[in-house]
Amino acid sequence: MDLQLTAEQQAFRAEVRAFIQERLPQDIRDRLRAGHPPRKEDTVRWQRILNERGWAAPHWPRRFGGAELGQAERLILMDELYRAPAPLPQVFNITMLGPVLMKFGTPAQCEHFLPKLANLDLWFCQGFSEPGSGSDLASLRTAARREGDHYIVNGQKIWTTTAHWADWTFALVRTDPEARKQEGISFLLIDLKSPGITIRPITSIDGEHHLNEVFFDEVRVPVANLVGQENKGWDCAKFLLGNERTGIANVGLCRERLDHARAVAERTPQGAGRLIDDALGAAGTAGLRLGAQAQGRGTAARHQRAAGPHRRPLGAGAPWQRRHRARAAHAALLLLARGQHLRRHQRGAEGHPVQVHPGLRRQHAI
Question: Which of 55, 101, 151, 337 has its CA 20 to 30 A from that of 310?
Answer without folding.
Answer: 151
